[in-house]
Amino acid sequence: MGDESSSSSSSSSSSAYKDYIAGLVAGVSTVIIGHPFDTVKVKLQKHNTEAHGIKYRNALHCTARILKNEGVRGLYRGATSSFFGMAFESSILFGLYSQTKQALQGDKNRSGPQLQVIIPSAAFGGAIISFILCPSELVKCRMQVQGTDSLVLKHTRYSSPLDCALKTIKDEGVTGLFRGGVTTILRESIGNAVFFSTYEYIRHYMQLQRNPALSGSNDQPNALIDVGVGIVSGGVAGVAFWSAVLPLDVAKTIIQTVPDTSSSRNPLLTLQSIYKTTGFRGCYAGLGPTLVRAFPANAAAIVTWELAAKVLGIKRE
């Protein structure tokens, strides 16, 4: 009995890398679909929360200006750092979440999702990826806000993500890359706890609804319904994530892109300042493109993650 348990544990640890590979593939699909929406969101957060300067009427107005002045390429500004950052970050997030959840659950019989397992697993994964996500997003955001509508001086403009990173280190030191780190940790820990809780419960409910009707059916409709479940559970979970933490994301964008390096890095103080300047609406700047992006981008991430897991032979309850 002991030998069998040891063998099972060894087999599980030896295939753990598959969880990280599946997560990496999910991250790439997220960037391809979601980056243009993210660019619009960041520009709205940067410009529409300032007392002076350029203002966009809405997300469509912002998108039209980007396309007119910069073309489609403008919508993918900063995507290079986002591809590397998101792929690496997604790999670690999904991998850590899967491994931590498995460790906390052990071999206990489970009748459904358990919040006492999901929340700490997701929050832990979110906290860890923040150390990768923070510098990646800082470079991405600074590249995104310096488009043709930017008021940034010519000599401080960045020619590439690498140039942005090097200038940041030169001007602010290595710690400058981690400006907004506390806010990123808060956003990712809270947001991913909401995301995975929503995903697991919707997925569980939809699986319960479909299983009785699918007994004895062939694999093709099963596969199509699996994709449908992934789209709905991933999409709704993505909307829940951003609905819960968008104010923190707005604060992070301001903290990472404000020219004054001595300005506060406290997200609560930043949100208080935004509220005084633009009201409650400013704290949710970029809500439209964020939610429009959240559903397809996260649906793609979950469908890709589950498909990659199936191809790699990862068994899920």
From TrEMBL:
**Which one of the record's GO molecular function terms can you name?**
L-ornithine transmembrane transporter activity
> Which InterPro entries does the UniProt record give?
MCP_dom_sf (IPR023395), MCP_transmembrane (IPR018108), Mitochondrial_Carrier (IPR050567)
The domain of life for this entry's organism is Eukaryota
Q: Which Pfam families match?
A: Mito_carr (PF00153)
What are the GO cellular component annotations?
A: mitochondrial inner membrane
- Give the species: Coptis chinensis
Localisation per UniProt entry: Mitochondrion inner membrane
The stretches annotated as Solcar repeats are 14-103, 113-205, 225-311
UniProt protein name:
Mitochondrial arginine transporter BAC1
Q: Which family does it belong to?
A: Belongs to the mitochondrial carrier (TC 2.A.29) family.
Q: Does the keyword Transport apply?
A: yes
Q: Give the stretches traversing the membrane.
A: 20-37, 75-97, 117-134
Record-level GO BP terms:
mitochondrial L-ornithine transmembrane transport
Q: How does it sit in the membrane?
A: Multi-pass membrane protein
Question: Could you tell me the keywords of this UniProt record?
Answer: Membrane, Mitochondrion, Mitochondrion inner membrane, Repeat, Transmembrane, Transmembrane helix, Transport
